[in-house]
Design brief:
The complex is a heterodimer. By secondary structure, chain A is an alpha/beta fold. Chain A contains six helices and six strands, in the order E-H-E-E-E-E-H-E-H-H-H-H. In chain A, strands 2-3-1-4-5-6 form a six-stranded mixed beta sheet, sandwiched between helices. Classes of the chains: A alpha/beta, B alpha/beta. Chains A and B meet through helix 1 and strand 2 of A and strand 1, strand 8 and helix 11 of B.
């Protein structure tokens, strides 16, 4: 891992990108890392395109500007491709993870790029199966930590239990745990 | 003695609410406003859950919030509140009354732009507008500092030598809505540090009846105001002492200003709040290349620590002063005015370049800061400052 890892989350408001960006940060903190996480607040309304950010480092994080060159971009809603510039500032070795039923090759064709590393996972399908609702945030987190093993699957599952306990019903928590595990297994690269 | 404390990930506003909870004030009167809402929202949860003993007064406006705080504080209560932007603007006349009555109210302000156009994001227009209101103003760089500054604010405000309200500022959204690491202090330690509040004067103390805020015309008003000016000036050593004591307990020491590689620096940037973190990154990077650059962070803006600032800056060649608020019709922002006029009489002083940046939450990046340091070298060759430079604006 380079000195500081920067992750940008693209979603529509209501899909849980803020929660995912925070959950990742909180898990990384438990694992002894330094963290920072924040959403971008614009005109807030459900369904509007939004972004969230996570920074993870082995050294204290002092910077307070936005993230311009993310190492990883996580796209919770595939319909944003073409609507917002999800590639903005992503270096040629950057990683793009998309919630879709399509293959990485198909997404590459759609994005019309030859560099960057592309991964896909059907996070909406997984959350429908495990939670009965299309909330792709936690499965996307599962896919992310498979590709970038900054923290272990067990650490994420433990942290989710801690964060969600008391706030959600046990079956919702269990559904999220299953969703993370499945996405961790099912994410595909090229 | 340094002990290790529990580390959690938490947003700035929630950290402020947690500090409020640990202070457990007698009265909180507040009206929520973006980007400060979560302080009041979270604190009202603590109230509803019975986790504090506070009398929580949900009022109908910020003007009423400060009015209720003033009443409660005059009655001898430990009082806290929270606001931002338009809310602080609506408190205006009551701010002056709180400080003139020497009431030790502690208020957090999530600094935000003023309308119009309407904007919910961070700049210092709100608190800079209140800079002459007689409140002590402390600015916080990150989530940890918000939390730490609140406890220190209670001690400073209530110190018998001070008895003045304190505003704890932090950048709206940038810090208020950013999740960062917080070292949480034990409740016991907080209680020991802030102590029990014993008001010197209280309207409810019927054995010692007194009047607050009576009519004072040309024969006595002036003396009251000068006494108040002395009081805030005399808070400087108290703020330093409290910062040292806090450091002895936690390992995190606070002062009026913070000098970051300024001792041998030729080019210095002066900034406040969250931007200081971004400047530190650039200072480290340029120092590695052998460039003599530094950062002077202004933590306490009121009272203005002129002596400390002068000593930190006087040997530099060029100083760039970064204001996050604008004074339409003037030649610079307020921080520039204070520093330059305060250092005017020194025999040896640097060239000062005024900057305004970040209005309405406009981002300030490491590239911007690097560019400022480059400009400071050009200004040295020029031998005089340029007109006010706006960072990152489309003109």
């Amino acid at each position: 891992m380079k000195e500081m890892l920067e992750i940008r989350w693209h979603a529509r408001a209501g899909q849980g990108a803020k929660t995912a960006s925070y959950l990742l940060a909180e898990t990384a903190l438990e694992a002894g890392k330094y963290i920072q996480a924040f959403p971008e607040y614009g005109p807030e309304r459900t369904g509007a395109p939004m972004k969230a950010f996570t920074r993870i480092s082995d050294k204290p994080i002092r910077i307070h500007s936005q993230v311009y060159n993310p190492d990883v971009v996580v796209i919770l809603d595939k319909s944003l491709i073409g609507k917002v510039n999800i590639l903005e500032g992503v270096p040629s070795d950057g990683i793009i993870i998309v919630n879709t039923t399509q293959s990485p090759e198909e997404i590459r064709k759609q994005l019309n790029i030859s560099d960057r590393k592309i991964y896909t996972v059907d996070a909406t399908g997984i959350s429908l199966a495990t939670l009965g609702r299309p909330i792709p945030n936690t499965p996307m987190l599962g896919a992310l930590i498979k590709i970038i093993p900054i923290i272990s699957l067990e650490e994420v599952l433990d942290q989710l239990k801690k964060k969600f306990e008391g706030r959600f019903r046990p079956e919702v928590i269990e559904g999220n745990l299953q969703a993370i595990k499945r996405a961790y297994e099912e994410v595909k690269g090229e | 003695m340094k002990t290790t404390f529990k580390k959690i990930a938490i947003e700035g506003n929630e950290a402020a609410a947690l500090a409020f909870k640990q202070v457990n004030p007698d009265v909180v009167a507040a009206y929520p406003i973006t980007p400060s809402t979560e302080v009041v929202q979270k604190f009202s949860e603590y109230v509803a859950n019975g986790e504090v003993d506070t009398e929580f007064v949900p009022v109908e406006s910020e003007h009423s919030a400060m009015s209720a705080c003033i009443g409660a504080s005059a009655a001898g209560a430990r009082v806290m509140t929270s606001t931002a932007s338009q809310g602080l603007a609506l408190m205006w006349e009551m701010l002056y009354i709180a400080s003139s009555l020497r009431l030790p109210i502690v208020m957090t302000v999530a600094n935000r732009a003023l309308s119009a156009p309407i904007n919910i994001h961070g700049d210092h227009s709100d608190s800079m507008g209140a800079r002459d209101s007689g409140w002590i103003q402390i600015y916080s760089e990150n989530v940890q500092e918000i939390y730490d500054n609140i406890f220190q604010a209670v001690r400073i405000a209530e110190d018998p030598q001070v008895r003045l309200p304190v505003m704890v500022n932090f950048d709206g959204f940038i810090t208020s809505h950013s999740e960062e690491i917080l070292e949480v202090l034990d409740d016991d330690l907080v209680r020991r540090f802030i102590g029990e509040y014993k008001p010197k004067y209280s309207l409810l103390d019927v054995d010692h009846p007194m009047t607050m805020g009576p009519l004072a015309l040309f024969d006595s008003y002036f003396e009251f105001k000068v006494a108040q000016a002395y009081a805030i000036a005399n808070s400087l050593p108290v703020i330093k002492k409290v910062g040292r004591e806090f450091g002895d307990l936690t390992g995190r020491y606070y002062d009026l200003i913070e000098k970051y590689h300024t001792d041998d620096a030729e080019y210095i940037i002066v900034a406040m709040s969250s931007t200081c973190g971004t400047v530190r990154e650039v200072v480290d990077e340029l120092r590695e290349k052998g460039e003599k650059v530094g950062l002077l962070k202004i933590r306490v803006f009121r009272p203005f620590p002129l002596e400390e600032i002068s000593n930190a800056l006087k040997n530099a060649k060029v100083v760039g002063i970064l204001d996050r608020s604008i004074i339409p019709g003037s030649f610079s922002g307020p921080l520039y005015h204070e520093i330059v006029s305060g250092m005017y009489h020194l025999d040896k002083r640097p060239i000062f370049q005024p900057y305004v940046y970040g209005l309405g939450g406009r981002d300030i990046t490491t590239e911007h800061i690097k560019n400022v340091f480059t400009q400071l070298q050009e200004i040295e060759k020029l031998g005089r400052p340029k007109n006010l430079i706006y960072i990152g604006v489309r003109e």
